[in-house]
Amino acid sequence: MLVAYYFAGVRSMLQSWHNFFFNAFDPTGFVSLDKPPVAFWLQTGSAALFGFGRVAVLLPQVLEGVAAVALLYWLVRRRFGVAAGLLAALFLALTPLSVAVDRSNNTESCLVLVLLLAAWAGFRAIENGRWLPLLLAAVLIGIGFNVKMLVAFGVVPAFALVYLASAPLGLGSRIGRLMAAGIVLAPVALSWSLAYDLTPPLDRPYVDSTEDNSMLELIVGHNFIQRFVRWANAREPVVTAAAAPTPDNEPAAQTAAARPWRDNVPAGPLRLAAPALAAQLMWLLPLALIGGVAAWRRWPSERRSTALWALWTLAYGAVFSAAAGLFHAYYLVVMAPALAAIGGIGAVALWQLYRERGRAAWLLPMTIVTSGLWQAYILRFFLLAGGTAFGGSWLIPALLSLAVVAAGALAAMPRRSSRIVLPVTLASLTVALVLPAAWCAGTAAAAFHAGFPAGQPPLETEAARAGRGRWGQYAGALDGDPKLIAFLQQGRGGATYLLAAVNARQAAPIIIATGEPVLALGGFSGRDPILSADDFAQLVADNHLRFALIGDGSRAVRQVWGENGQKPLTDWIRSNGREVDPALWRSIVEREDADPPARRPRRAAENADIQLYDLRPASNGG
What we know:
This protein has 2 domains: 34-443, no CATH class; 477-614, no CATH class. Helix content is 59%, strand content 4%. The chain has helices at 4-13, 17-22, 38-50, 54-80, 82-93, 96-102, 108-128, 131-148, 156-166, 171-198, 215-228, 252-258, 275-281, 285-298, 303-322, 336-355, 363-385, 395-412, 418-445, 462-475, 482-491, 504-514, 533-541, 555-560, 567-576, 582-585, and strands at residues 499-501, 518-520, 547-550, 578-579, 588-591, 598-601, 611-614. α7 (108-128) runs parallel beside α9. The longest helix is centred in the N-terminal third of the chain and has 28 residues, at 171-198. The radius of gyration is 26 Å and the shape is globular.
């Protein structure tokens, strides 16, 4: 799955070192991407080696995902053994959200790998108290900041508390070394942002999703305050069912009821337990919770390792549960390594406690029953919502029956004989992994190429597939309309820019297809105050621009994506330009869902209600 906005940025960054360093969205460096550059630098490097295309841009995330699984295995194995390491790696590999993110061009795969590398250095520092691994952990977290800003700091409380509590040094030395690590972390984290802001604004792109053209504003405003507090002036579109594109004969409310929307789960302490979010990440939550308690009891000497993974999970869980502003489900993937680690460690601890015949032996059968109930709770939500036909009405009773039978068998069996007990336990674990594995398979098989990454259920219903396709359209297309592109190239003349569009959603497909300069007048959301109407008029007068796209689908979509936010510019365009006959530039395709068959505009760089304006109406060829 590709986000067209980031995909276009990679194509632009390939064109100059200036664009590369400043993380430019468009080939002329008019506006930046709204994230730091490290993950996009890796994607651009891959595209430079293998040629710009979908495979080259996705390759770094695939490699990062594989490396994260291998590194998690090594981190868990060295303290808890091969079985725990293998199970932790398996659980991470079968986390649907991890699969989705590793198949996308978002920055989370890179962030997860960098944080796991920081965990490796942090564990070494906690174990031996030496300077070098502690400072290396700080440097790696600083690099993580340059992957996705403040999200990288979610592991800092876990590392700092465990180091402060258990590093083999005096308390004063521990405090002093943590302060030194903070002194290293700050300049590494802020190095690129300060270099960006210290560059004169005319010599760099405008900072996307800001009002004052400042990277520090992006850090504090868009990527911190707006993630926690929903407010009217948010710089990123707030997606609602009413704003989603729907067929002409289908009300938005019906669409919302047919398709659970994971990004709209309300903030609160139970947010991550909502089925639409739990299906992304938390199929094995009972194993992690109960197994974590078992591991704490079973391995007292390894409690600092268990505590680090648990605090990692709790810190991010608290952050994302409280985030009442701009929220997307794929952010949660940074919790996946820690949850998988606790699950792997906990599974082995439960098995060992079960074999020891004490009171804690009951924890393993209890975990199996609880896991069955939890997974049935998640699955029921999707079946009732019509999101999947996987299993139908028989699967939940079968799942619960298997869980009860397996737990009962374990409770009744003699525990010191592994000849029978071990196969039953492994069979119970396999049953618990069926649903997350099915969701991973559904994610890998999902037939769409644009939008935000998310785990998808297997055997989606037609209504769910149609709804997902519409949300993908809402996020932006990858392929520009060839008829529009040909028209623009033929009529461009000597203009610097091939096109001006209200937002990056409209501009990205043209940049991807052509590599030509396209202005996203309001940045990603269409709301950034980059140009005044007078500035825009001067561009047209100086022959830098001839064509502009305005409008974007339904009235609700235009409100979300910045049509109103750029009203002075769109008013100027309508007053001074001439609308181009759609027959000259818009491709037409058959609408298969209409009866009788109808014809509709191609859904590519433009939507049904968009208009193309010629800003030099006296010229020929328009």
